[in-house]
Amino acid sequence: MLDRRTFLYGTGLTAGAVMLGACSSGEGEQTAQPKAGKSAASSGKGSERKPLSPPKKLTEAPMLADQVKAGKLPELAKRVPSSPYVVPHKWLEPAKYGGNLNILVPETNDLQILEYMYGHSLLRFLNDALDIGPGLVENFESNEDASEWTLHFRKGLHWSDGQPWTTADIMFWWEDMVLNTEHTEVPPDEAKSGKGTVMKMTAPDENTLVLTYDAAAPLTPMRLAGYVNRGNGSTWMEPKHYLKQYHPRYNKSVAKNWASADGEFEKKRNQVQTPGCPVMTGWVLKSYKEGRQAVWERNPYYWVVDREGRQLPNVDQITFRANKDVEVGKLQIQQGKVDYVHGPFTGLTLGDVSGFKQTQKRSGMDTFFWDSGTGTGSMFFFNYDYEDPKMRALVRKPKFRQALSYAYKREDARKQIYFNTGELSTGTMSPKAKEYQSGAEGQKIYKQWRDSYVKYDPAKAKALLDELGVKDTNGDGKREMPDGSPLAIRLDFPADTGDEHQQKNNLLKRDWEAVGLTVKLNPVAPEGYGDQWANGRLASQCAWEVSSGPDHLAQVAWMVPVESSRWAPLEGQMYNLRGTPAEKEQLDVDPFKRTPPRMAPEKGGPIERLWKLYDQAKLEPDEIKRRQIAFQMVKIHIDEGPFFMGTIANTPAVMLTHKDLRNVPRKENLAQGGFVNPWQHPTPAVYDPETYFWQNPDKHTT
């Protein structure tokens, strides 16, 4: 999956990994609103690593208390689990209920809406992914070799329509969607063993799920915590009581197109467009006006509370307003029409900050920053499997790629694009990754990779090119191929690429031409870009960034070619087909004409060695040994890279919030200063926007 905002632990592996205290909740009651303000908790840093025991007394929002009195809702104690999840963040203040939150999105049905809600999570990332905490799963354990995982879900969970949530809702997803050949849902990574084979799933009872693999699957907890389920991550559950009427197994009269995008089943399960579709998130879609706005209101059955026992969320509703135009969005922010802005979702950059600061009196918005966690900033990489054989042979030479890295004056990009923030980087996985937080060895490995080819040294770049025979052989002032034929580096990028990437591309062109190379900027129509890349028709990609974390092996695609969108697409596609009949088919056909296009890696080459290390790591239950394998993979990138080239690591991510909105953490509250960019670490969902609240809710009702 793309690293997020390109526009993408600590828990043991054996028994007793996560346990919540056995405290029963009291009856629901409405209490006086607390006086919120600065408190010791509001300056707290990070989140509790051990689960918090549920408070003995729970309270609810006034609008829900009124419905209970009117007989429209059961009392709170019957709506939440016997052991609800207690949000463990140390920065939280005592809150107030009420109000509306206005947020901009590109479309009313944009999946980024779900990035504000972590409610379908089985497990949750905490402390910027240094820890894994409980979610819908209250506790879990594995056998000794991590080939069987048992998940124990909270008792008394309910969907937003009040119907009980049980493991039958997961089995419905698994048996009637994933294993149903008519449906497009496929087994996610967490459903496969280290050998790549699909697990067996069973549900002994309504609250227990057993995942059985044919080999070790030690990355299971990390993968279960990642992404947003029923959003940008795998589905993992659907409301069986609601959807079975649209499924042919339970209703023989459904239309044949039930599983297609325009079929009734798919329409009804679309929680972003279908008001009332049952969810487990803090808010549920109330009304939907396509292209204008979508209103989400509080879920009366949300299973999460704060440490004071207040059922979340605090804000009554969120209004997501559609706006595609970045400049119009900036104007709306400056006019005070927006309450909360997750900058990377809105296309904001550091260059916009001064304008927001100048208008903050009118807008009421505070500007602040979280760390992005990027390992590259705006990046560049060649297509290692490019269809032109001469160019492919050249870009596969480490010295050629190293020469281009030495020729790149990153300091200029740091000044012009990133306002002297972040750190110069050859290009790495995220500096926030667990491997680099494991002590002195991890930091040493990270710095070696970061600094490997980062120095601006055009003389060295020229010497390396000369050594490869990439010289000016015809006297025209431009370097040719080793055989004397013309050489042009083509910078391919989607035509709708943002300013950050285009500025960087212009610097690459300037710097590489300064060492005698011919460079051509080539905007490509976004439609079909991915297919052209996967087929080897595009030479390079220079409009992405790498933030993969929190664990190199849980999201490994930048480290190891295992799919077709990164730096070695045809070899990645071959990895995908290993162990299937297709692996041995069409071997006498040109790799670029196979269906799908695919090729085997060079014998003994870096990709074959990376594959072997990854295969070994997936079966290794010992975390320390897995980390050492990851370091071996990094060493290949250091010695034979860069396979992808970075600019600036860990640049700030722009955030804005209304001055009256509280419990939005600042950088100093977060364990690693924030970890925004990777989709796998779903931000802001991991910081629980359900805890945000208005200091004066009566002033924010529309």
From TrEMBL:
This is Peptide/nickel transport system substrate-binding protein. Residues 132-540 form the Solute-binding protein family domain. Gene3D superfamilies: Dipeptide-binding Protein, Domain 3, Periplasmic binding protein-like II. Residues 35-45 have a biased composition (Low complexity). Pfam families: SBP_bac_5. One of its GO terms (biological process) is peptide transport. Residues 25-61 are annotated as: Disordered. PANTHER family: OLIGOPEPTIDE ABC TRANSPORTER, PERIPLASMIC OLIGOPEPTIDE-BINDING PROTEIN, PERIPLASMIC BINDING COMPONENT OF ABC TRANSPORTER. GO terms for molecular function: peptide transmembrane transporter activity.
